[in-house]
Write a structure and sequence with these properties.
The protein is an alpha+beta fold. The chain has a domain of 84 residues. The protein is built from five helices and nine strands, in the order H-E-E-E-H-E-E-E-H-H-E-E-H-E. It has a five-stranded antiparallel β-sheet with strand order 4-5-1-8-9, with no helix packed on it. Strands 3-2-6-7 form a four-stranded antiparallel β-sheet. A hairpin with a 5-residue loop joins strand 4 and strand 5. The protein is globular, with a radius of gyration of 16 Å. Keywords: Signal.
């Protein structure tokens, strides 16, 4: 359990370190380890993300209620065409719970794995999920990422 919390905390530090946010049009993604752009089936930006492995049929990682307060500051950035820019470290194993960030942050303890599994909204929440790699000259601003989306060039990146 400690290892999971350590991994989650490290992920938050790696993916969540950013200075004061500026206007979305000039947002710089250079603090992100990898630039992840996605479309979800529904708006899950206010729901708690956890990691679930279909292969083993189990939850593999989840945040403590105290960690979720940070998620509220790191909601995805809206891009063109319904795409979102991740700021917390989602991946293909990410699923979302029925709990809102606010509800989960107020819990005194982590729900049981069985309870969390019963609260998963969708085991496949993403329509599209792209890893644009490490920030580079081509993908380091919202404008540049939006241009990749508009031109269709995003499809040349690794779909995960």
């Amino acid at each position: 359990m400690r290892a999971l919390i350590y991994i989650i905390t490290c992920g938050f530090l790696l993916f969540g370190c950013s200075s004061t946010k500026t206007a979305v049009s000039t947002f710089n993604v250079m603090d992100l380890k990898n630039v992840i752009v996605y479309k979800s089936k529904k708006d899950y930006s206010n729901n708690v993300p956890i990691m679930y492995s279909e292969k083993i049929g189990s939850i593999t990682s989840y945040p403590a209620p105290t960690d979720v307060k940070r998620f509220m500051e790191l909601k995805p950035v809206e891009l063109t065409g319904g795409f979102l820019l991740d700021q917390i470290g989602i991946n293909p194993n990410t699923v979302y719970l029925e709990y809102t960030l606010e509800e989960y942050a107020e819990l005194d303890e982590v729900p049981t794995l069985e309870t969390m599994k019963s609260k998963i909204l969708d085991f496949s929440p993403f329509d599209e999920l792209y890893n644009l790699g490490q920030p580079s000259e081509q993908n380091n601003t919202i404008e540049k990422i939006n241009e990749l989306i508009k031109s269709g060039e995003i499809e040349t990146y690794r779909k995960i």
